[in-house]
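Predict structure. Chain length: 300.
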Amino acid sequence: MLFSPSNTTGKVDNAFLFIVVCCVILLAAVTICMVVFLIKYNRERHPRPERVKESLLLEIVWTVIPTILVIFMFYFGWVDFKYIRNPPKDALTVNVLARQWSWLFTYDNGRQSDLLNVPLGRPVKLLMTSADVVHCLFIPAFRIKEDCVPGMTTHLWFSATEPGSYDIFCTEYCGVGHSHMRSRVVAMSPGDFLNWYNAPQGRDLAEQGLTLLRTKGCLGCHTLDGSDKVGPTFKNLMGRRQGVIRAGRETEIVVDEEFIRRHILDPRSAAVAGFPSVMPQMPMTDEELKTIVGYLMRIK
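Prediction complete.
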């Protein structure tokens, strides 16, 4: 592999390449035989059909060769599967919570992020679960994926070998915001990772509010730049005239602090007109709620 950003990339690619090469060779052999037989045994050359006797050698050859190939394919697949499914004991553990429609990564020191920050060269073990429906964490560049299932913990591991940012997708259809359920693996040097890992949490309201919006999954459905996603944008939220549906009737309100607070605590109390009513009730402390509301009131 010319570019292998993780320890799993090359292993999966090599096994896949071996299987593809075998399939191409078999396809070519079968196609050539078909063409030769069509030309050699067409009706013009053989107007009268002849009885063909069986060939024990031919039967053995086309049984043994595919069997050997299948055994080799199984061997490559099994060896790589065992490697990918058994993380080293010294791996860095990261808890992954999948939810509609965002990812939350929690580290051993309690630090949380909506990005998966990892150090280069160190094994990382993901312990994954879901808060609502079945999701599937997929890192295409690393060639690994695993389901996140409510009520159970699944696992996955890798070791990043090249610095950079690599996409994370959900590949299990999980509702209207499925296509927006994206994140990234950020692979950095061990020194940079330690600086990030041990950095004190920001005390500034803007930094705290933005961090909470990310870790609570709010930015999986909303934006800060004025564009709409699954839900309306947070930009210029305060004072906005907004259509809402209550008890089946649409009315227009002016967004204020009380509406924001009530809608976070009870999303079903009012649906924003023009958007699906899919916002989940997100557990949070009074302090977190106060910080988020204060931050949303200041976004311009």
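Summary: The chain has three domains: 7-85, 92-198, 205-296.
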